[in-house]
Backbone:
């Protein structure tokens, strides 16, 4: 018997991140890493099928193009900053623009890729904090 | 969708309009294949040959942007031959006489002239549709990405009501949503004119409820859509923009204009899971967790609210958009954002969106619940409008055919259509970083009909330059009869040859959907400089 | 003794985990039980017939990832056959595996057209294996042109999701002939007819244990069980080999492997 902490395998039920069909899938997880995907057999509409995109969905998780740090761009120069200071700058600039130009000069683009909860929060933030209805997402594309 | 995915396989007729279902909604196309195996008739309206064409009863390859003409002629024939469902029309609808009057001139001969489909085919399709026990309409962006996008949706609804194909299993009007949570984003009110649950911002009573709940006054005039925000930014009137998880540069029409507009914004914030052409323009780019790294819910095209499970931790400093927004609101001192997790946010959603009222994470489980679900006892809704329409009686809305905004001429003789292919998705943020998909569809290409290829002296694999009034891109030619003569098709996934440099930003006047499926283009054969040479085209265009 | 008690015994005897299904909100999902959560292991009767997963393939992955760990597995007849066949291909080291067997419901056995819906350990208790039909007869009764048409029309709706390959417990190759550009053109739908499907059928000869997971995963509903069933029938009749049985390796595996020493093959 080897160290118990090391041996683990579980599957996490979730939904495919691609189109709107909403096929059920299981992510296979081993030691904090996604090692594969399986179609969810008991899903009411996809019934154990996935498309080529669904089957390969774990592949982009570890892409070298993942954004892992907040990036500040000043005068053409990029530099990594902490998430906290990035968010601070966002608020500072939002407040400055709101004060100087008013709520018509700010816009929020939400995402059909994000969860309901996230869409709700961004919509609520735009309307209650920035006091603008300039909130949309790419529903038309 | 008014109906559910599972019902498709039991339909006796399927009308598929502007949806390459196999490539874009593969698992749903499986249900269509199953229906055909069970004996269903399949009618496809699409200028392009698609995989489903092989098993269809009829494929009407009409000229792009002429769906409304075709469908109006079908309706006229159905009424003229008294094939419409009088009982359903009498009990459940209003405005039939207006519809009938509006179709007066929509003869099959006229529609044939407009669409290029023979009269006999139009009439055959109409009779098949009217004669079907359960006719289900499936449509996608090929139908709606036109200046007449709203009209086509109304026309499809009219056809469905005319033949009594609403409010029963395996029928209805079923749009396939292209993105995992476009349904949910709309339900949640991430729209300039509507609050969560489709309450219009200009509706005083509805808005008041939100104002009471949120304890703050909400502006009553609708905000700007994405294309309008881009216009405002170009005009120097948009000074702060926050983009959460969208690659606007590649997804919106007329990319060069979008780039100019985004550069013109004083402070641009972009949250994404990857470095994209849009994060490259951001003053601050914020790293976000992807779907496998967070918890929440997505709502599918069949209104099924489903649970997204967190499998692993996000990389580096990346956080879920939810956590980022809660922290942002905390720093800003905004009230009403004191949420510890997605479950708490969902619980607030169920209080403001009546269709979600009876849903909670426990009930969602692994199988989801279809809204509307009004109470904890309500089982969810498999298909809509069973006894009555949301507004009571279904109203026929007469529509007049409008041709596409930009039609071919001598200088730009081809109709350019854009879309997706089976192995890439949208702007490629995820698929182009997935090796097994990228190997299938690595290079941008343009589909050209063999006779046009001959005319332009182009062979398969040649590099060609496609240009429109807005710009040009270089990419490989794929010679195929999947497109008709006079038409070309380009998938828009590729940053090295972004199709949206070419596309027109003519909008549907009502819902502001851009006409991505029709613009005028020309083909110029370029010297084959090898594959990689096209990579810089996009960067050089800045 | 329930499988949970048997699994507990295995953990007590030094196994690191036991692979089976966990019930989560009404769905059965693959899970590795350890001493921490073994009490949550469901009874075999709780697992819905329609929710089978390639447990043998998962076991193979776990054995490779945890190179000194030992695992138990609660297995059906098809899981066991796959494990036996995988061992012959050096994909599973059965000295690190203990198997707890169970029999499928008669209903599932019928749906699967399975001639051995139970593990070897239960063979004595079970009725004599029944003659089975995998739909091969009805296809064979067709005239040759009709049969060709039947297969070509089925291949024409293939969406190249690769689900048949991905879910197959016996598809373990690092390099896949279905991704050989010279054999199957990339990016084209349907994938090359009939090459794509015949390539996979040939790969299944001498390997397919008739679990049927491929057919269940196919969004286009292609009758893959029938296709691979026919291939297996030929291998059985011509070469006398039935995949998933103990003893010799498939004679097809000997093709091209007689050059070089056995040591070369093992390394």
Residues:
């Amino acid at each position: 018997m080897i160290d118990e902490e090391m041996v683990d395998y579980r599957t996490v039920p979730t939904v495919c991140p691609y189109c709107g069909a909403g096929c059920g899938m299981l992510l296979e997880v081993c030691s904090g890493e996604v090692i594969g995907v399986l179609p969810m057999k008991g899903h009411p509409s996809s019934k154990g099928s996935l498309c080529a995109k669904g089957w390969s969905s774990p592949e982009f998780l570890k892409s070298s193009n993942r954004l892992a740090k907040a990036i500040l761009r000043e005068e053409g120069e990029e530099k990594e900053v902490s998430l906290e200071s990035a968010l601070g700058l966002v608020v500072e600039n939002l407040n400055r623009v709101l004060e100087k130009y008013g709520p018509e000069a700010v816009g929020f683009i939400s995402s059909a890729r994000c969860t309901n909860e996230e869409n709700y929060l961004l919509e609520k933030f735009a309307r209650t904090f920035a006091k603008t209805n300039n909130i949309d997402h790419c529903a038309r594309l | 969708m008014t109906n559910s995915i599972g019902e498709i396989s039991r339909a006796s007729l399927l009308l598929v309009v502007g949806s390459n279902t196999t490539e874009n909604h593969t698992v749903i196309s499986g249900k269509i294949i199953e229906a055909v195996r069970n004996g269903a008739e399949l009618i496809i309206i699409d200028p392009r040959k698609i995989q489903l064409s092989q098993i269809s009863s009829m494929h009407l390859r009409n000229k792009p942007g002429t769906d409304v003409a075709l469908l109006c002629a079908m309706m006229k024939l159905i009424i003229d031959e008294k094939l419409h469902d009088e009982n359903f029309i009498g009990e459940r609808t209003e405005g039939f006489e207006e519809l009938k009057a509006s179709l007066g001139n929509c003869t099959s001969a006229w529609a044939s002239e407009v669409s290029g489909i023979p009269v006999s085919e139009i009439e055959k399709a109409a009779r098949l549709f009217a004669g079907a026990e359960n006719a289900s309409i499936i449509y996608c962006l090929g139908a709606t990405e036109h200046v007449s996008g709203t009209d086509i949706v109304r026309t499809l609804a009219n056809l469905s009501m005319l033949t009594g194909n609403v409010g029963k299993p395996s029928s209805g009007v079923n749009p396939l949503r292209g993105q995992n949570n476009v349904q949910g984003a709309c339900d949640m009110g991430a729209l300039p004119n509507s609050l969560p649950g489709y309450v219009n911002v200009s509706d005083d009573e509805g808005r008041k409820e939100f104002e009471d709940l949120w304890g703050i006054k909400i502006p009553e005039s609708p905000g700007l859509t994405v294309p309008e925000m881009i216009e405002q930014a170009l005009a120097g009137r948009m000074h702060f923009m926050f983009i959460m998880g969208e690659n606007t540069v590649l997804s919106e029409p007329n990319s060069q204009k979008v780039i100019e507009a985004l550069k013109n914004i004083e402070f641009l914030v972009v949250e994404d899971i990857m470095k994209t052409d849009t994060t490259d323009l951001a003053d601050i780019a914020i790293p976000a967790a992807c779907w496998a790294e967070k918890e929440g819910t997505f709502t599918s095209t069949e209104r099924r609210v489903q649970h997204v499970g967190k499998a692993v931790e996000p990389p580096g400093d990346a956080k879920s958009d939810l956590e980022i927004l809660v922290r942002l609101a905390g720093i800003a001192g905004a009230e009403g954002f004191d949420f510890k997790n997605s479950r708490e946010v969902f619980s607030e959603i169920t209080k403001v969106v009546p269709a979600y009222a009876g849903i909670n994470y426990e009930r969602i489980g692994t199988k989801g619940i279809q809204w509307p679900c009004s109470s904890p006892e309500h089982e969810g809704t498999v298909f809509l409008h069973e006894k009555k329409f949301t507004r009571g009686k279904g109203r026929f809305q007469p529509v007049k055919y409008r041709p596409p905004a930009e039609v071919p001429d001598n200088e730009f003789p081809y109709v350019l259509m854009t879309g997706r292919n089976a192995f890439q998705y949208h702007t490629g943020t995820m698929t182009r970083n997935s090796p097994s998909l990228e190997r299938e569809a690595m290079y941008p290409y343009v589909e050209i009909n063999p006779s046009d290829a001959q005319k332009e002296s182009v062979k398969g694999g040649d590099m060609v330059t496609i240009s429109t009034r807005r710009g040009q891109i270089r990419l490989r030619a794929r010679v195929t009869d999947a497109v008709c003569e006079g038409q070309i098709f380009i998938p828009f996934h590729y940053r090295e040859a972004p199709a949206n440099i070419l596309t027109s930003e003519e909008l549907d006047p009502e819902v502001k959907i851009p006409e991505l499926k029709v613009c005028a283009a020309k083909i110029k054969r370029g010297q084959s400089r090898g594959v990689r040479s096209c990579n810089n085209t996009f960067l050089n265009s800045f | 003794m329930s499988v949970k008690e048997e699994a507990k015994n295995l953990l007590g005897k030094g196994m690191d985990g036991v692979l089976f299904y966990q019930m989560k909100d009404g769905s059965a999902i693959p899970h590795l039980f350890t001493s921490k959560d073994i009490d949550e292991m469901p009874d075999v009767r709780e697992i819905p017939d329609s929710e089978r997963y390639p447990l043998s393939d998962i076991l193979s992955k776990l054995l490779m990832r945890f190179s000194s760990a030992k695992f138990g597995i609660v297995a059906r007849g098809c899981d066991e056959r796959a494990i036996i066949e995988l061992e012959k291909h050096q994909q599973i080291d059965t000295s690190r595996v203990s198997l707890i067997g169970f029999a499928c419901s008669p209903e599932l056995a019928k749906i699967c057209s399975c001639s051995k819906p139970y593990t070897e350990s239960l063979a004595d208790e079970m009725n004599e294996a029944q003659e089975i039909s995998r739909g091969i007869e009805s296809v064979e009764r067709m005239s040759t042109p009709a049969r060709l048409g039947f297969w070509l029309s089925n291949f024409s709706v293939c969406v190249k999701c690769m689900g048949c390959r991905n879910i197959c417990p016996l598809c373990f190759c690092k390099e896949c002939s279905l991704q050989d550009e010279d054999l199957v053109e990339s990016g084209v739908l349907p994938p090359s007819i009939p090459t794509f499907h015949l390539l996979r059928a040939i790969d299944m000869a001498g390997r397919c244990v008739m679990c049927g997971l491929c057919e269940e995963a196919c969004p286009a509903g292609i009758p893959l069980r029938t296709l691979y069933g026919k291939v297996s029938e030929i291998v059985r009749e011509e070469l006398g080999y039935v995949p998933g049985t103990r003893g010799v390796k498939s004679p097809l595996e000997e093709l091209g492997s007689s050059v070089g020493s056995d040591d070369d093959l093992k390394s």
Remarks:
- The CA atoms of residues 174 and 454 of chain B lie 39 Å apart.
- The first strand of chain B starts at residue 13 and ends at 17.
